[in-house]
Amino acid sequence: MDREVNPPVLAVDIRKQHRGQTSFVLDVSLEVSLGITILFGPSGAGKSTLLDCIAGLVRPDAGKISIGKSVLFDSTMHFDVPPQKRRIAYVFQSLALFPHLTVEKNIEYGLRDIPEEDRRACVSEILGDFRIEKLKNQKPAQISGGERQRAALARSLVTAPRVLLLDEPLTGLDAELKAAIVEDLRAWNAAKRIPILYVTHSRDEVDALGERVIAVDNGRIVGHGAPMDVLDAPRRKRLAQAAGFENLLSAVVLGLREADGVMRVRLGDSRCEIEVPLAHASPGDRGQIAIRAGDILLASERPRGLSARNILEGRIASLEQRGGMCVARVDCGVTFVAHVTPGAVRELELAPEKQVWLVLKTHSCHLVD
After folding, report:
1. CATH no. for residue 193?
2. What is the pLDDT along the chain (369 residues), one digit of tens a residue?
3. Which of 118, 253, 337, 343 is spaced 20 to 30 Å from 328 by Cα?
C-alpha cells in the first residue's frame, strides 16, 4: 500500500477523567513524529489510557486528536471516528493472535477486502521483514514467545496503518530478544515511515530504543526529550522510582549558592549534608533526593584530591550478592544503597560493620517532589 509523500504527525490534545484502581485526570498535549517515541512512566500514570484514547477505544471528555490533516476526534465538533476506521495498529502485551489460525492466516486476517494476489504479496513481504517466513504454517501454540511477538507485529503492520501503538509489547522477553525485535521494527519503519508510540515502564527498554521519550505521571506530561535528559535527572519521585533510582532520601534545603549552581541539603533527621544541583527551591523547602546506587562510589579510606563535593563517612550495614553485582547498604546517619562489583568487595575487604566513605558527585543527586 502506498504511503503519503509527507508522512503525518500524530497530534493529541485531550482531557479525560480516569476512574478505577487509580483515579486521575489525563490532561496531555503532545505530538508524535516519525520514528519511535517512548511513553514512559510508573504503573497507573495514564500511559495505557492515552493509547486507548488515540485508538478510539476510550472517548476523551474534551480535546482533539488528529493524524496530519485527518481529524479522528474533536469534542467541540462532536466528531469521533470509530476505532476500525482510524487506521491505527495497536499491539498489546497479551498479543491476541487467533490460536486456531496459522501465522500466515493470522497475518492475512486484516487483508480480507483486497485482491488475493495483492494479499499474498503483502503477507510475503511482512513475513520477510520480521524474519518469520519459516513459521508461516505454524500455529501460535507451536512457536516461542518472541516468535509470537513478531507475528503479532506483522499482523498489525501488514494493513499499512498510519500510526502504530505498542503497549508494553516485549514484557517477558529477555534483553537480547527484545533488542532483535526492536531492530526489525526499526528497519521496517525506516522504509514505511510512520509515527510509533511505545509504552513501557522499563528503563532498560528506554535505553535500548533510545530515540525520544515522553515521561508521564499522574495523567500529565512531566518531561520530554532525549532519554538521558529526561530520565537521568527526574523531577518527580514516582518518575525517579520508575527510572531506577534506588535511593530516595527525605531532605530539607539549607542554602543556595547560585553562582556555583548548587544548593546544600540535609538528609532526613541526620546531620548528613550534601551538595546537589540548584533547583527551584528556597531554604526550608522539603523534598527528596534521588540517587542511583550505581552512581555511589565506596572507598576503604578517606579519599583526597577529588573533584566530587560529597564525601560521607559511614559503616556497612549489610552486603548482599545479587547476580553479578553486590548490594551494599551503608549507614551514614541515613541509609544509602550502593552497587559494587564482587572484585571491589574482595580488594577493599568490604564486610558488615566495616568503616567506609561514600563518594557522590553533585550532579548524580537530584531533588524530586
Report:
1. 3.40.50.300
2. 444 445 568 999 999 998 777 778 999 999 998 889 999 988 888 999 999 999 999 999 999 999 999 999 999 999 999 999 999 999 987 767 899 999 999 999 888 788 888 889 999 999 999 999 999 999 999 998 888 989 999 999 999 999 999 998 888 788 788 888 888 888 888 888 899 999 988 777 888 776 899 999 889 998 888 888 888 888 888 888 888 889 999 999 999 999 899 999 999 988 899 999 988 889 999 999 999 999 999 999 998 888 888 999 999 999 998 888 999 999 999 999 999 999 999 999 999 999 999 999 999 999 988
3. 253
What is the grid cell recorded at 27?
Answer: 490532561
356 closest CA partner among 332, 326, 320: 332
Rounded to whole angstroms, the Cα distance separating 292 from 364 reads 7
Give the C-alpha separation, 39 to 206, whole Å.
9
Query: What single string gives the DSSP state of each residue in 64-91?
Result: EEEETTEEEEETTTTEE--GGGS-EEEE
- For residues 51-86, b (16+ Cβ closer than 10 Å) or e, as one string? bbbbbbebebeebbbbbeeeebbbbeeeeebeeeeb
Q: CA quadruple 191, 194, 195, 196: dihedral positive or negative?
A: negative
- Closest by CA to 32, choosing from 158, 241, 221, 228, is 221
Structural domain of 227: 10-233
> Which of 240-258 are b and which e, b meaning 16 or more Cβ less than 10 Å from the residue's Cβ?
bbbbebbbbbebbbeebee
pTM strictly above 0.90: no
Confirm whether 33 is domain-assigned.
Answer: yes
Three-class HEC string of 12-70:
EEEEEEECCCCCEEEEEEEEECCEEEEEECCCCCCHHHHHHHHHCCCCCCEEEEEECCE
